[in-house]
Write a structure and sequence with these properties.
Blueprint lengths: L3 E7 L6 H12 L5 E7 L4 H9 L4 E3 L11 H12 L3 E5 L1 H14 L3 E5 L11 H13 L6 E4 L2 H9 L7 E3 L15 H8 L8 E5 L8 H14 L4 E5 L8 H10 L5 E3 L6 H6 L3 E4 L8 H8 L4 E4 L4 H5 L4 E3 L4 H12 L3 H18 L2 H17 L1
Parallel strand pairs: 1-2, 1-4, 2-3, 4-5, 5-6, 6-7, 8-9, 8-11, 9-10, 11-12, 12-13
Length: 378
């Protein structure tokens, strides 16, 4: 059987959840049957080299998403004529628009990718909202189909005007060999942070972004600290450092600097998550939050806001609270700290089993591959 060349066009290759999902898909793609190629509209970013190490070619268009250059569409079209793909898979809004237009001009099947739910103007750039509105108008005829990573994201975009009959929901997947319980992680991280072995750790893995709502997390940490003064809060991601004056200002305003650890971007997320007693998602908007699946695969229970498909992901293995509610978030941590060590361990094992049953990367990749084949055979 002839291998299919799939060009993945993505807005950028930062370390967000959507970008990491592409990396995981490429890592598990059947390379005997599929020949992937990646084009980043912006720059190669931190994940560009990781994708290149998989043996996948990466090109960068150098587009400024704040002020897109329409002439870059001509360059992208020329690249597609040169690469000669069988299918184009776009990833994120700007890529859906520009990649969709270039693919349409080239006469190629185009699959859009939706990886977001909320378009709250207080958290999402106005330019992105304009692109989404254009995409909604074009969705009836530009893409052959639209893959949404969550059911809630599908519903949200249909409400925005996207063509409902184009959607296919394929959740994100997780490599259970990469994300797995690590018995050495607990003591290792506590030694790194100069903490005692039994210190209770609440983790938050998220870049500094309004959608992630670090302010509510810090307010909840203040509430929790009043009844559990020894608890520690470990935060990591892009922009998570003491040089971030906004974040450090929130922490200092409530007086819990000595209980907070800002670690910046980390390349050892599975190891880090395995050291947490509880993982947290405090976001006000998500589609399919990867950090929940990652932590659960590591055997760590989660407290999450009710955004996107979060409640569906954790099921009965975690605690779901309303967004922007610091008291509810702190109460979720309270419920977990009141469990015995054995009870929390059992809950974490159930969480890992849920990921194994519903969100294994191998099964997710098969669904993408089947869809690509179907498009070519039409």
């Amino acid at each position: 059987m002839k291998s299919l060349r799939v060009v993945y066009i993505i807005t950028g290759l930062g370390t967000g959840g959507a970008e990491m999902s592409l990396l995981r898909l490429l890592s598990a793609l059947d390379r005997d049957k599929f020949d992937p190629y990646v084009i980043s509209l912006a720059n190669a970013g931190p994940l560009g080299e990781k994708i290149h190490q998989l043996g996948v070619p990466v090109r960068q268009l150098g587009m400024d998403t704040r002020c897109p250059n329409p002439f870059l569409l001509v360059k992208l079209f020329a690249w597609l004529r040169q690469i000669r793909p069988d299918v184009i898979q776009t990833w994120m809004y700007h890529a859906d628009l520009l990649g969709g237009l270039a693919g349409f001009l080239a006469g190629l099947p185009v699959v859009w990718g939706i990886h977001n739910t909320s378009l709250d103007p207080s958290a999402v750039k106005s330019g992105t909202i304009r692109v989404v509105r254009i995409n909604a108008w074009l969705s009836g005829w530009l893409p052959h189909c639209i893959i949404s990573c969550s059911e809630e994201a599908r519903r949200a975009h249909v409400r925005m005007g996207y063509a409902s009959d184009k959607f296919v929901v394929i959740p994100n997947g997780f490599d259970l060999n990469t994300f797995r319980p690590d018995s050495s992680a607990r003591d290792s991280l506590r030694r790194e942070l100069s903490l005692t072995p039994n210190m209770f750790l609440v983790g938050l893995v998220a870049r500094f972004d309004p959608l992630k709502d670090h302010q509510t997390f810090i307010r909840a940490a203040d509430i929790f600290h009043k009844t559990h003064p020894q608890a520690q809060f470990v935060l990591c991601g892009d922009g998570i450092s003491w040089s971030n004056e906004v974040l450090s200002g929130w922490i200092d305003a409530v007086g819990i600097r000595q209980n907070c650890h800002l670690l910046g971007r980390r390349d050892d997320i599975p190891h880090l998550m395995s050291a947490f007693d509880v993982n947290t998602l405090s976001s006000i908007g998500e589609a399919f939050p990867n950090v929940l699946g990652e932590a659960m695969a590591c055997g760590v229970p989660c407290v999450t806001t009710d955004v996107g498909d979060a409640a569906e992901i954790v099921g009965d293995t975690g605690i779901v609270v309303p967004p922007r509610d610091a008291h509810a978030l702190a109460e979720g941590w309270e419920r977990l700290i009141n469990l015995s060590t054995q009870e929390r361990y059992a809950l974490g094992q159930r969480a890992r089993a849920r990921i194994q049953t519903h969100y294994q990367i191998g099964e997710v990749v098969l669904r993408y591959q089947q869809l690509y084949r179907q498009l070519v055979q039409r």
